[in-house]
């Protein structure tokens, strides 16, 4: 069910639960929930978000899951969380302090759940949150404990720099190293 304008407005500053378990192959981390996701309680829920198609086209999932099927990711050794917890209309509404604090929370989750890979979707947010101003897409030299870090392009429909094919290709590179 599509949220109303009122429901979207009321979703500002909400949080949504993680899809997470110990020992995942890949824990995907969005920047923060959008209003549509917060209103529905589902990650990457806005129609036009390319996360779910990229996940499928890259071979991480055997079919394209819908946001309301997000819990099925756990069966594929995958999970989802966010750098910052607070829902906003646009990620640019987050302050540097919120992103840095979110990186601290995310680091604690990674240490607790120990996924093999943490995949952050959004290089600009990663650079800010983790104080890595020169980070690029792909594998990062840093680790969190034994967890390797990979940076992917933001799958938001607002990220016009990446076509669906190019986005799926980036996800495919991660899948190749993650062994999924």
TrEMBL record:
Signal peptide residue numbers: none
Any one Pfam family match given in the protein's UniProt record, by short name: UDG
Record EC number: 3.2.2.28
Top-level taxon in the UniProt lineage: Bacteria
Protein keywords: DNA damage, DNA repair, Glycosidase, Hydrolase
InterPro entries in alphabetical order: MUG/TDG, Uracil-DNA_glycosylase-like, Uracil-DNA_glycosylase-like_sf
Enzyme class: hydrolase
Residue span, Uracil-DNA glycosylase-like domain: 17-175
Any one GO MF annotation of this record: hydrolase activity, acting on glycosyl bonds
Record's protein name: G/U mismatch-specific DNA glycosylase
Species this protein is from: Phytohabitans maris
């Amino acid at each position: 069910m599509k949220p109303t304008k009122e429901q979207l407005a009321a979703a500002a500053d909400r949080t949504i639960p993680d899809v997470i378990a110990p020992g995942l192959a890949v824990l995907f981390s969005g920047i923060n929930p959008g209003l549509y996701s917060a209103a529905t309680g589902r990650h990457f829920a806005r129609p036009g978000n390319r996360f779910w198609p990229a996940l499928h086209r890259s071979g991480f999932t055997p079919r394209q899951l819908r946001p309301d099927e997000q819990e099925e990711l756990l069966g594929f050794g995958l999970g989802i969380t966010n750098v910052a917890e607070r829902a906003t209309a646009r990620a640019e509404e987050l302050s540097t302090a919120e992103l840095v604090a979110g990186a601290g929370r995310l680091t604690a989750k990674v240490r607790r759940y120990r996924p093999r890979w943490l995949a952050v979707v959004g290089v600009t947010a990663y650079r800010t949150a983790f104080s890595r101003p020169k980070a690029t897409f792909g594998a990062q030299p840093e680790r969190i404990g034994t967890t390797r870090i990979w940076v992917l392009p933001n799958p938001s429909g607002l990220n016009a720099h990446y076509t669906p094919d190019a986005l799926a290709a980036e996800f495919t590179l991660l899948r190749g190293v993650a062994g999924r």
